[in-house]
Structure formats: C-alpha cells, structure tokens
C-alpha cells in the first residue's frame, strides 16, 4: 500500500504492449465463454485487483488494469493528462504489475485448498503487498520480478487467511484486521528472507546518493488538487495511485452493481454506501493532511479508504452514522499512524508495512468503538 523509496530508473522495465494484449485477450475469452477450465483462476486474478477496495469484482479489476495501462501510456509520453505517477514514481509499473499478478496466481494455486463452496479467503493479498514491493525495492530485472511473485504468493496468503478466518472471528474483529496484519507480518518475514537471497541486489534507494532537500517553499494544494488526489487514493493500495486507474476501478464496480447488485462487495448490496464512505474518507484525509503532502513526496492518506471506512459500512449495515463516523475517524487518525510506523522500519523493509499495520490497528480500534455512538 505504497510509499516507496523514490526511484526514477526505467532500466530493465518490461514492454507494455504484451500486458495490454494479454489483458484484452483474457477479457475477450472470458466474455465469449472460452477458457472455461482456466476461468476460475483468471476470475480470481482479475477480482484480486479490486479486492483491496472491498469490491471483489473481476470487471472492476479489469477496469483498474485498463486505467492503469492508459495512465502508463500517457506518462511514458509525458502527456498533460497523465495524472499522478504510478508505481511510486519509479517508472516500473509494468514489472511491478507482472510480479503482483504472478503473486496472485501462485496464491490461488498454493492456497486454493483453503476455499470451500460459498467461502471467501484473502488470496488477493500478494497483489497489494509483498509481490509488487519487492520489485519497487530491488529493481525490475526478471529474477526480482519472479522472486516477488513466488515469495509473495507463498508467504502472504497463509498469514492473511489465518488472521481473517481464524483469529479475527474469535476476537470479534473485522476480517480486514486479520488480512492487513497478515500482510504486515508476511512482509517482515519476506524482506528478512530477501536479505539472504544472493541474486537480489541492494535496495535501489541504497544504491543511489540521497536526493538533495528541496529549497523551495512548500507547494500549495488547492481544491482541484485535493479532488484529484482523493480520486487517485482509490487505487493507491494497488501501488497505482492514478486518477485513470481509479476511474476504471470504480466504473467497473458500478457496472457490476448495475448488472447484479448482489455481485460486488461480497454480496452485501452495500456498494453505494462503501463508495460513499471511501469518497468521504479520501476527501477528508487529503484535506486534513494536505500540508504533509506539500512537504513530502508521499503521505498515506489512502489508508482509511481501503480499511476503516468500508469495514465500518459492512460492520453496521451501511447506516449513515457509521458511514460518516468511520470515514472521518479513519481519515483523521490512520494516516499519521501509518507514517509514524513506516518511518521506524529498517532501511531494507518497504514502507508499505507501516501502512498495512496502521490499517489493522485503526480498524481494530475504530470499528468496535462506533457502537458507542447513538444511531449506529
């Protein structure tokens, strides 16, 4: 869930056109009814892209990938409409995405046995945790991409499944607490393992001299920037952080809802309430913490969008007080917590660990506390 060390190298990046062709081919084949034997796995991979936002929709996931591909195309050509840079500004969006998709495929193959008819497990976890961050930390060469995919797919799902399906039900906590705590623990384990893998180089930010501190005054962030940043935060958990990717993600979820209201959001029928809570959380967080954005290249305002806000909606049935209270409390409390944890991590641990740890702590604290408010 983002905040990577700043890297600008594009060396070793994989070409974009094979990814676009593969996504289009899969979409056409699924639409036509072909690839029936592989359809369950492909559906898991496509849905995984939207799972962090609580949508769980293959169409929404494909919308995210399409929007991300458009943003990448615009950014490589430096078009005026390119929006916020993806992949933490590293230029490694394609290899990062390749590792993330491989991680989900490995997750489904290695941990699919935990599923039974009518059940859900967080097999999407590698997509937004270990797999892409290994690429963002160590580079875009093929061994690193494969390491991220395989290591993320093997390590992350088990701990997230344990947290969401075993520990959280016994403690009466929202499943997202177990999922994000599992991601954090898995990342600590994975990056510890990475220290001992001889084919991985030193982290990118340790191979380059530190960037000079800015000498100009902090840039002001006006209303248009706040709205753009709020929209981009919808896809920040996937390390896209692009307005175009977010538009594709949301559009796919809405189309799925219009076709079948019970399909997205885990069959809850609460997609409109979830989107409302996420929009409120994003706007409030970016508005409250825009001063931090002005002084830093990144600030984790996306954290409540994919944790506290939607978790409160599901926990309390989408009541208006729960939508507003969860969104506002999450927006005010969770970003500084995430930033504080990330700042205290070892130099070779990706800062996203602080973000997912903050998601677990904030959700575990805020969701139960809301029952004390009237009207919840």
UniProtKB/TrEMBL annotation:
Keywords: Membrane, Transmembrane, Transmembrane helix
Membrane-crossing segments per the record: 54-74, 94-113, 119-138, 145-167, 173-194, 244-263, 269-289, 298-317, 323-345, 352-373
Keyword Transport listed: no
Organism of provenance: Mycobacterium dioxanotrophicus
Name of the molecule in the record: Uncharacterized protein
């Amino acid at each position: 869930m983002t905040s990577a060390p700043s890297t600008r190298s594009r060396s070793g990046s994989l070409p974009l056109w094979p990814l676009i062709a593969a996504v289009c081919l899969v979409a056409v084949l699924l639409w036509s009814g072909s690839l029936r034997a592989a359809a369950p796995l492909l559906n898991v991979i496509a849905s995984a892209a939207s799972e962090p936002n609580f949508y769980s929709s293959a169409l929404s996931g494909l919308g995210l990938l399409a929007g991300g591909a458009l943003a990448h195309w615009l950014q490589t050509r430096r078009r005026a409409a390119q929006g916020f840079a993806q992949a933490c500004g590293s230029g490694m969006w394609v290899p990062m995405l390749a590792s993330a998709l491989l991680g989900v495929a490995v997750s489904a193959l290695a941990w699919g046995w935990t599923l039974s008819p009518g059940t859900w497990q967080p097999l999407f976890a590698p997509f937004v945790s270990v797999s892409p961050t290994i690429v963002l930390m160590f580079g875009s060469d093929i061994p690193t991409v494969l390491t991220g995919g395989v290591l993320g797919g093997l390590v992350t799902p088990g701990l997230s499944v344990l947290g969401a399906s075993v520990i959280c039900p016994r403690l009466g906590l929202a499943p997202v607490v177990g999922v994000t705590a599992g991601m954090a623990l898995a990342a600590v384990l994975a990056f510890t393992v990475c220290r001992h893998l001889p084919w991985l180089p030193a982290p990118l930010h340790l191979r380059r001299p530190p960037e000079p501190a800015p000498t100009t005054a902090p840039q002001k962030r006006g209303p248009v920037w706040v709205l753009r940043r709020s929209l981009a935060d919808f896809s920040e958990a996937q390390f896209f952080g692009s307005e175009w990717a977010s538009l594709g993600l949301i559009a796919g979820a809405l189309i799925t809802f219009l076709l079948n209201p019970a399909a997205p959001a885990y069959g809850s029928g609460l997609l409109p309430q979830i989107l409302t809570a996420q929009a409120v959380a994003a706007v409030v967080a970016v508005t409250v913490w825009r001063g931090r954005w002005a002084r830093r290249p990144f600030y984790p305002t996306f954290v409540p969008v994919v944790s506290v806000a939607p978790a409160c909606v599901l926990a309390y049935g989408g009541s208006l007080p729960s939508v507003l209270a969860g969104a506002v409390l999450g927006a005010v409390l969770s970003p500084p917590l995430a930033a504080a944890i990330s700042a205290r991590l070892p130099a070779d641990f990706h800062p996203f660990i602080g973000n997912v740890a903050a998601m677990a702590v904030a959700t575990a604290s805020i969701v139960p506390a809301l029952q004390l408010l009237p009207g919840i």
